[in-house]
Automatic annotation (TrEMBL):
GO molecular function (one): protein-transporting ATPase activity
Chain segments annotated as transmembrane: 21-39, 138-156, 163-184, 190-212, 233-258, 270-291
Originating gene: secF
GO CC annotation: plasma membrane
An individual GO BP term: protein targeting
Function: Part of the Sec protein translocase complex. Interacts with the SecYEG preprotein conducting channel. SecDF uses the proton motive force (PMF) to complete protein translocation after the ATP-dependent function of SecA.
Keywords: Cell membrane, Membrane, Protein transport, Translocation, Transmembrane, Transmembrane helix, Transport
Location of the Protein export membrane protein SecD/SecF C-terminal domain: 115-293
Protein name: Protein-export membrane protein SecF
Gene3D superfamilies: Multidrug efflux transporter AcrB transmembrane domain (1.20.1640.10)
Length: 313
């Protein structure tokens, strides 16, 4: 209780003095993520690549080898099977069949007949390649427009220096999250794309809180060196930032372990995004401001040179 009553705390950590380390780590993370995207690629789900998705449940623990043998001779092309949460649940991905919708329905019927009555078909979906391509384009457009909209909001609320720093941090978060999905090969579908956009919103929320304190501190300590102003702003908001992130991670952890396989990829991306978004707000967005000439408002006071707030007139 004493800790809560004393918030916000000022820790006196020299974040700006370590900005070189932060910027080097961020550059490594972005380059690594880009490299993973082009070398390993994303494990696109049916939403984006098109095809047939089926979820089935067996009476006992699924024998994937036996199930593969049943569908391997059906002539359906590439078919992948994987456990989906419980040992009895299996997810099947089948490449799109040549022809119209009737051919896809025939393929689903062939799989049903191959498995027989001992297997329960719980879900089946079909997405054509044209729809998948359109969803890819719409997803990329939504991400770009979201970032630009956030940048314009920051520009309107603060000034262009803050907007540029926020966009750099947001691009870092999005690229790092794409790299996370490329590294883990978690299925990338519409739900995980929603996770990417959610991460951008969460990250900018943290960044705006710190930027607001930066603007306030710039006005109070007009003669204080910029590095000290930024350090003070980060430290004054650090307790809020950490508590918010930890609380969010507790909720996401419960969803990840107990929410089921359907939302596990979405939740895993959010967990990563909360961690990387919190880091970028503190270790990237604010340090980038040191390379910009920020305007300082407010009245001058001799006390400001000593690092104390000016008295109200």
């Amino acid at each position: 209780m004493a800790l809560i009553r004393s918030l916000p705390l000022e820790y006196g950590i020299n974040f700006i003095g370590r900005r070189g380390l932060f910027l080097a780590f961020s550059a490594f993370l972005m380059l690594g993520s880009i490299g993973l995207f082009f070398t390993q690629g994303l494990n696109f789900g049916v939403d984006f690549r098109g095809g047939i998705l089926m979820e089935l449940r067996t009476e006992g623990p699924a024998d994937l080898k036996a199930l593969r043998e049943r569908v391997s001779g059906l002539g359906l092309g590439e078919v992948t099977l994987q456990e989906f949460g419980e040992p009895t649940d299996v997810l099947i991905n089948i490449e799109r069949q040549e022809g119209a919708e009737d051919e896809q329905i025939k393929a689903i019927q062939l799989v049903r007949e191959a498995f027989g009555e001992g297997v329960e078909i719980r879900r089946q979906e079909f997405v054509g390649p044209k729809v998948g391509g359109e969803l890819k384009q719409a997803g990329m457009l939504a991400t770009v427009l979201a970032l630009l909209g956030i940048g314009l909001y920051i520009w309107f609320r603060f000034e262009w220096h803050f907007s540029l720093a926020a966009l750099i941090a947001l691009a870092h978060d999005v690229v790092a999250t794409i790299g996370f999905y490329a590294l883990t090969q978690i299925e990338f579908n519409l739900a995980t794309l929603a996770a990417v956009l959610t991460i951008a919103g969460y990250s900018i929320n943290d960044t705006v809180v710190i930027f607001d304190r930066v603007r306030e501190t710039l006005r109070k300590y007009k003669k204080l060196p910029l590095g000290q102003v930024l350090n003070r702003s980060i430290n004054l908001t650090l307790s809020r930032t950490v508590l918010t992130s930890v609380t969010t991670l507790l909720a996401l952890g419960a969803l990840f372990f107990f929410g089921g396989e359907v939302i596990r990829g979405f939740t895993a991306g959010l967990i990563w995004g909360v961690v990387i978004g919190t880091y970028s707000s503190v270790g990237l967005a604010v340090p980038v401001l040191t390379f910009m000439k920020l305007r300082r408002g407010g009245e001058e006071d001799d006390a400001e040179a000593k690092g104390t707030p000016a008295k109200a007139s």
